[in-house]
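Notebook B, p. 112. Complex prediction, attempt 2.
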Amino acid sequence: MALLQIAEPGQSTKPHEHKLAAGIDLGTTNSLIATVRSGVAETIANLEGQHLLPSIVHYAKDGTISVGHSAKLFQCSDARNTISSVKRLMGRGLADVKKIKEFSANQLTASGMGMPAVVTDNGIKNPVEVSSEILRTLANRAEQALGGDLTGVVITVPAYFDEAQRQATKDAAELAGLNVLRLLSEPTAAAVAYGLDTGKEGVHAIFDLGGGTFDISILRLEKGVFEVLATGGDSALGGDDFDRAIAGYLVEQTHITADDHQARQMAMLKAREIKEKLTDAEIIDVDFYHWKGQITRQLIEELISPIVDKALLACRRTLRDAGLKTADIQDVVMVGGSTRVPLVRQKVADFFGKPPLADIDPDKVVAIGAAIQANVLAGNKSDNEMLLLDVIPLSLGVETMGGLVEKIIPRNTPIPIARAQEFTTFKDGQTAMAIHVLQGERELVDDCRSLARFELRGIPPMVAGAARIKVTYQVDADGLLQVAAEETTTGVKANIQVKPSYGLTDEQITSMLKSSVESAKQDIQARMLREQQVEAARVIEAIKAALQENGQELLTADEIHAIESAIEQLEIIAQSTDIQAIEQAIKVVDNNTQEFANRRMDASIAKALVGHQVESLDDVVE
Amino acid sequence: MNYFELFGLEPNFFINEAELSSKLRALLNASHPDRFASSGSQQQMIAMQKTTQLNDAFAVLKHPVRRAQYLLELKTGIDATKEVTVKDPMFLMQQLELREQLETIIEQKNVSDLINFSDNIELMADSQRDELAQEFEQVEWNTQSIQTAIYKLQFLYKTLADIEAAEDKLLD
């Protein structure tokens, strides 16, 4: 058992109070939540002792919503109102998901913003809402177990998730009332769990085959820095495809008709059972729908082999992107329940020329890594000063003449990153311009994912080709994109109308938030007030710590005085219930500390550079 | 602060890549938004901007063509990203030949030919990079020769990028 931490006598634990933070693995099939308690990262079980929460939500006619094991019970009896594998719908268009067979029992419809929604007896549910139910259930579980509110969470996403899918995940967290510290790539999370466990340095491959997604990441681990060198995969490839291949065989044997949804659902469940049994057994007896027979491991391996080969092809490409050969890879780490399948392990071992590692439970490893990162980000002091450097998984581009895509930021570029591109007008006197942002590797617009369409208005009328419109793409550390535009010859900032192709607008989220909170009979005002107060406390604490650290060194007495009085004001106003006044007071503090924050950044950069030079000198001496 | 200064380096075409990478890691350790996740949104914004700048500077300094273009502009104000006229018939001829070769290989869909071709271009790029380095070594820079050398190197890198794109297609 882990040792409990006790503060020194007389030393208040207040300033360094342990903040409650959690890592969430929001999976296609199952989800988990983990936290660091007394220095040990572990997943949190529900009251029945179950760690895995099936990612299933059931909407009953009377308005009852059940999540997880209780929802799973309705999967056959009330398939129409039971939503599973919702992760496959996140940030997707209706046309994309028409092909996905899981949703054959559910009735899909278009939601406001291109995303598909499921028609249930309890109303139309979009994927963001459904995911937020799962997140809320997990957060409640953690808050009960830890005895307090979570200050922040890290949510994992497949490395190969595009911007729309990441944004949808973050929206779901916001709807669930969670403060997202970071969206973290699943393979990176797994690497953190392994890296800190074994302290291994060098280049590692993470092979992550989940229920519905496949990721391969190549990471370099050096002195606590996890650097993603390249990442690749397929956001629609996973163990569910194994089940489907096996179910297809069962359907063939039993002649189930195409419109018998319940029988097909049963076939999927039976297929999973067969797959799991044949992980250990070589041959089993199967009894399904008047069909009795034997199924061997060899038979299912023949069925699923092409799916595994698809994953290995992505491995080959990702290695090439990283500029490495299989021999350069020190270890291959297996993540995701689907890597339990013997054929997967065997093929991965053959490809990399070494047996893969699977020491940590492949179902839990991602949540554990996320919990470790959440603990660091929440500001809980850790001996291991680790840093995760991630990349953008798919190239970002823009539509040009003739339906072609021009790449602005290539895949595997480290994030955060910004790139600017100049455009000009096509006609004399043109005052507006439509820009279409895309993500993907292909040349044609139709083969890439449409992320957003922007309209730049208010360009001063000039002759064709004279205007210089500079469009800047900024990708943040979560892999999310923001776009700014400016006409550079006149300095006019063009107005941008953002229309995400497959996502929700801020207004839609706010209105969903309102309706969900209202139904829970809570006060939206109370929640917004609480959020502002938390932000105020965060700002005050951070600035006080900063002043103590190097305020004397970087500021004049007058500057210190101005900052201190702004903080005092904020401290007083934060006690009130006036949301706008608190927001305003935070802004005042921000304005007063902008210069200080910049100087602090420059000082810490300068210090890092000096420290590095000393360190490399030490290397020479050694 | 220019990109070289940001990394505590003298403006120079020669660069030690391993040192550059390890400096980047040390700097990101101080600037990365993750270091400010529990601070206010203003500090997070500054952290993101600084880290973005470091990542961008690193990308420029690491890539020989972009580093050369940046160095030339920094020292002489010449924008080497603009088209230059190369008066070198031998090179222009070779350029055409290489493009034709690549197109033939792509049509034949032969992966091993493509890999051999890629290795070949990489060797050419290496020697072109050395040539460019020598131009920068001159006490008095001949900006015309530097621009030509940059252009030639850029062509070879562009060809390598096209090979990669072709390889992607073959693997699909």
